[in-house]
Design a protein that fits this description.
heterodimer; A: 236 residues; alpha/beta; Elongation Factor Tu (Ef-tu), domain 3; Rossmann fold; 2 domains; 6-stranded antiparallel β-sheet; 5-stranded parallel β-sheet; 5 helices; 11 strands; globular; B: 197 residues; mainly beta; Sulfite Oxidase, Chain A, domain 2; 6-stranded mixed β-sheet; 5-stranded mixed β-sheet; 3 helices
């Protein structure tokens, strides 16, 4: 496995393919020659440069991990965003952008971590958690790992086919879903029923309000705050 | 770098001179925390400054509130690339809290409820550059933004402004804190883009 490579300077990547994930999100694969590899859960800074030299940079979680120099981003479009609408609607294979990373040494899963792992995703917060699911499967780790995925509706699921083939994923649909499913925002009771018992290592990623609620419920339910790692996006 | 990204023209064109390189403006207030927001009660809250001799200077919430607070108008810059301009805080200057503290050490470790730490040079916390902030835009500071009180060191990236502050410990050396051990820069000047190692 990769041992916490450090980010160097900006490096050029070339988009190799894209794939729609949801009505507002898509995956982008980027070839980055010389990429030092990354650990599951890390993120990358992405920099776009307009022809006149204007630049904009943002951070995105990686859905990929390991030594391969092909990165997968999965980006959800923010209605008033500057970079995400371009990545979701415009970018094409062959287009170039710059990347810096891998970044972040905290919100990561490594195969030597043998504790059972509960992942809790809200919306596009599933991206770094999918990297962990993949790394876990590839490692042959015998530690339990399961995902609770809160998402608006079935069509808003990122990685729908891939996650749909797994038996360790539970969905919590907030707006619409199958007729036999409970629809509505997650509650403490539903969270308790869906997650591994106290003692599991927990990763929570999603919008700020979602992560705040889930993390504080987990503490209320007796989970050790020191075993709960969070990553949030958006304002409060 | 001479590449450009086909089809990208940019939208914000934020050439605001108050914006450090590589930052974008945000109007909301994003939250970056490594773990759950701790539950802190004001009646047991305390803030300490510990020096190399083992002397511990201690304040309760009421004692902090009895000290003079001042308004701080400042811009804040997060290493995750958002900046928020023209924010207004209220807090107690660390100059006030360091009065009567004797130390020969040049570095400080900031300690938070919940176990977070971050390091800073002592000189960056003095001379009107740092506060214990308890009020944001006229209201008590929200827990998710570090309430009841956080350190405010706005000339450095915002991870240096420890949320849920509970103590400062003087250090002989510039030992790395939490994010500094997890890939972030030891000092964190946003104008020099000191983001990562």
């Amino acid at each position: 496995m990769v041992d916490a490579p450090r980010p160097g300077s900006w490096t050029v990547g070339t988009v190799s393919s894209t794939h729609p994930e949801t009505p507002s999100g898509r995956s982008i694969w980027i070839d980055v020659p010389g990429w030092p590899g990354n650990i599951a859960g890390q993120h990358v800074d992405v920099r776009l440069t307009a022809p006149d030299g204007y630049q904009a940079s943002r951070s995105y979680s990686l859905a990929s991990s390991g030594p391969e120099p092909r990165l997968q981003l999965a980006v959800d479009k923010l209605p008033d965003g500057e970079v995400s609408p371009y990545l979701v609607d415009e970018i094409q294979p062959g287009d170039m952008l710059e990347l810096r990373g891998p970044l972040g040494g905290w919100f990561v899963w490594k195969e030597e971590q043998t504790a059972p792992v509960q992942l809790v995703a809200g919306g596009s917060g599933v991206v770094p958690l999918v990297a962990m699911i993949r790394a876990h499967a590839a490692s042959g780790s015998t530690a339990a790992m399961q995902l609770l995925y809160s998402v608006r509706s079935p069509e808003d699921r990122f990685f729908a086919d891939e996650l749909g083939a797994l038996d360790n994923v539970t969905y919590a649909y907030t707006r619409s879903g199958p007729t036999d499913a409970v629809i509505g925002r997650l509650t403490k009771e539903r969270l308790e029923a869906a997650v591994l018992p106290v003692g599991a290592s927990v990763f929570v990623c999603g919008p700020t309000g979602f992560v705040e609620a889930v993390a504080s419920w987990l503490v209320d339910l007796g989970h050790d705050a020191g075993l709960i790692k969070t990553e949030r996006f958006g304002g409060a | 770098m001479s590449i450009f990204t086909r089809g990208f023209s940019g939208r914000g064109r934020e050439n605001n001179p108050a914006l450090p390189p590589g930052q974008y403006l945000t109007e909301d207030f994003p939250v970056l925390s490594a773990g759950p927001t701790p539950n802190i009660h004001l009646d047991s809250w305390q803030f300490t400054i510990t020096t190399e001799t083992g002397v511990v200077h201690k304040w309760s919430w009421d004692e902090l509130m009895a000290l003079p607070s001042e308004d701080i108008h400042t811009d804040i810059h997060c290493v995750t690339r958002w900046s928020k301009l023209g924010t207004t805080w209220r807090g107690v200057s660390l100059d006030t809290l360091f009065e009567g503290v004797e130390t020969d050490y040049n570095y400080v470790m900031e300690h938070s409820y919940g176990g977070y730490t971050t390091n800073a040079p002592y000189e960056d916390l003095r001379d009107g550059k740092a506060w214990i902030a308890h009020t944001f835009e006229g209201k008590p500071l929200d827990p998710e933004h570090g309430g009841p009180a956080r350190l405010l060191v706005p000339h450095l990236y915002f991870w240096k402004s420890a949320k849920w502050i509970t103590g400062l410990t003087m250090m002989k050396n510039d030992d790395p804190g939490f994010w500094e051990q997890n890939g972030y820069h030891i000092y964190g000047d946003p104008w020099k883009e000191q983001r990562y190692w």
